[in-house]
Write the structure tokens for this entry.
Amino acid sequence: KVSLKNSIDKLKTDTLASVDWAGTTYEWSQDVQNTLKNVFHIESFRPKQLGAINSTLSGQHAIVVMPTGAGKSLCYQLPALVKPGLTVVVSPLISLMEDQVRSLTNRCIPAKLITSTGSKEESSIALDILKDNESEIKLIYVTPERFAKSKRFMANLQKCYADGRLQRIAIDEVHCCSQWGHDFRPDYKYLGILSNMFPNVPILGLTATATASVLTDVQKILNIPGCLVIKSTFNRPNLFYKILEKPTSQEECVTILEKLLNGRYKGESGIIYTNSIKDSEDITKELRKRGLRVGCYHANLDASTRTQVHLKWHDKYYQAIVATVAFGMGIDKSDVRFVIHHTISKSMENYYQESGRAGRDGLRAECVTMYRMQDVFKVSTMVFSSSGGLEHLYGMVKYCLNGTQCRRLLIAEHFDETWGDADCNKMCDVCCHPVSNAKEVNLKPHCKTLAGIIQNADQQDVKLTAQKLLDAWFLKGPVNLRHKGKEPNFSRVLGEDVIAYLLVGNYLIEDFHYTAYSTISYIKVGPNMDAVDDDSFILNMPIRRYSHFELQAPPATDYKPAIITVKSEEGSKTKKPKIESLTVKSEEGSKTKKRKSS
Ligand code: ADP
Ligand code: MG
Ligand code: ZN
């Protein structure tokens, strides 16, 4: 029964989605155009905005899925002005709502925020707007807990509805309803009553989370199964994606960053994401020692310092901000030319958001991730206790381990979309250096060796971290932990890849142990290892290509729209005779050669 209902709901959504909502012959179409130009001073809609606006003005419940920065707010702000009555906007963060109310007020659009932080009198005035038939306020912003915790708010909202003034309920960041998402907020579940309490009032949910499971869950929780889902593409064609080999020492990392800032990204603005406050402070200090103007940003700084740092970056005094992910909200700098991840993100969702802060102006920008196996455990020990935490992280690791498929393809998969290679336009490292037939390593014999090492250690009551496992495998470290066979005939870097590959495939698993100061990840044999014994079982890992990247030369080509074929490869050598490249690795990632600039 459940599955039948799900199929019917899905059919409903598909049918609704097959309607072309972006028409211009609705009774409100002229009004919509005028409001866009005269009130918002915007010349034209971005993809899917008009469809979202028409559908909600038609009274449909709808969920709008667009990447961050695509312009979701307009989808409820504009309709609010086209029809009489009040739009209630639910949003999780006061600061976000304050920003919106401020910018609406600047455009002479009457909007108000109901807070619990302001004075009694203030919130009382805001609450009375709901009851006041004469009020000229068009949009009212509230946090979700209002619906659960404020009787007075609910009573006033009832009155507003009874008077026929409740025009629409917009729920921003609507994925917060779902536990499957990455940002579950318990207060959002109270919003499930709205569709029954206010029949005929269209609900408009908005989010940048596109996974099918989250969207169906949201529909279920809001009691609007089978509603229209309007989704724009998540492809950002002007962003170049790249994985960079991360050296083992912090000093070498800083050297790479220095070279990038002084070379490839000279005079450009960007962000360097780290995964700890300490890293962000250390790297800032080191880069400053080397004469670079960078700011540091994390949650432990007080609000005024943070604002200062942000402004200095905005005004180009700082070339880059070295930040934790606390740096994100309210970045409206459109000419961010690079986002470097010094440590991998905790999920693809996060990576997409963080890297997506580059290139908002539509011009070419680069998203570079520094990857090495050790960082997997830096992050896993932080996320393993949250539901889906490891699974999300492993999605990110798969992206990093990939060296044979277009990076866009992997990002698209995450958003349940399909983007062909053609959509990449050589805007990722893999497409830039295509490998005609990637070499593969047969992992079966190595699986046996690794499982043997782990069992042998276990018998001696020794737990192995990934590094220790790697040591024993390469016949390093304590002799009693080593295996009896030969060491692998490939590099340690590739060995790291093998271990990470086996982890994300559940052939190996992490086992977490707390100490007084930290959490340690040990490696154990995973549930899929059994299958390896089967003769007919094949387990080959495509060898990642460690492609070349010019740290000091600027990117070779400016991004051109997809129709134009960009002939030259990334970092082409035209007119740049003495280019230094820090590390050049052969396809097998075997030996690291160093070339010095002359
Ligand atoms: P989202 O909520 O999807 O992250 P916002 O609604 O905050 O994005 O909009 C991001 C920016 O894009 C805002 O500055 C907004 O004014 C601008 N914007 C929205 N729609 C358009 C448009 N059609 N043309 C130009 N700018 C737009
Ligand atoms: Mg938004
Ligand atoms: Zn590609």
